[in-house]
Here is the input.
Amino acid sequence: MRAAVYQGSQKFDIEDRPDPTPGPGQVVVDVIFCAICGTDVHAFLYDVAPPGTVMGHEYSGTISQVGLGVTRWKVGDRIIGGGGEPPPEVGTSRGPRYNYRTQGFASTDVRAYAEKVVMEEWQPIPLPEGVSDEEAAMCEPCAVTVHAVRLSQMKLGDSVAVLGAGPIGLLCMQVARAAGATKVIVSEPVPARAEAARKLGADAVIDPTKEDVQERLVELTDGIGPDVIFECAAAKGTLDVAMDSVKRGGQVVLVAIVWTPTDVMPPNWMAREVSLQSSFGTQPEDWRIALDLIRNGKVSMAPLVSEASFLPLDNIQEAFEALCEPSNQVQMVVKHG
Here is the structure.
């Protein structure tokens, strides 16, 4: 099989590796689509992934081999690369002082920037009819936003702002709407992503290069500020903008991962007693909810995943380099085969 192997110093090499063989209780998945996640781009940009890493965790595929004792899968089953419920004996590898920056890329597992992936029998979830392989590759990031919305204090009828209309922001605005937000405002400087937000139903889209985001968010919420702001940008100053803009007693949910120090000015917002909630990763139920939202059409992948999004594995170096700079690309997806 072929795999994009991170060599360190912002360099991928495409290597030929032996096809994997499943052990007892394992399956081999032939990967069809693997979306490029912003987390992987950060691992590349800040060179935090160890050399030899094969990244890629947003994927769909088919079961091509089953190991001894596997009963829930057969060859040819369509799957999503995650979301399964771990058995009690598996537990979690995250200790009480888990640090994602220093520990988040310690895994040596070969993931879906390879053509084949070995998974434990319990790890994938089935892909139902009515959800395409392309859409399924976006189930994990959709689950991330489901987790963020469920973790938030958002209530039916609330006003919501989403800072950043990358893939996570575009999914977050749709999930918030599905959860009952009556007004959804998006801030995004990139024209293609701003247009995608409009197509997906944003009530207003703010261009932070031309408008004062705080002033516009307060103006668009009758002088109060949004009830909840989802920070999905991780750009310079966006966390402080979110804290400055949210209403008295409101909440900011930090969804994007900020990899560099960021300034905040607490006196601007602490008297309003606003709260900050971080959100990280997913739980199995988040995947099931995300899949149901995609299947029922409450979350659309149309502006995110299209023929223009797909690239071959051979182009992954160029794709990552492009994504390290401000880009009009909404989403990029590796298409195997």
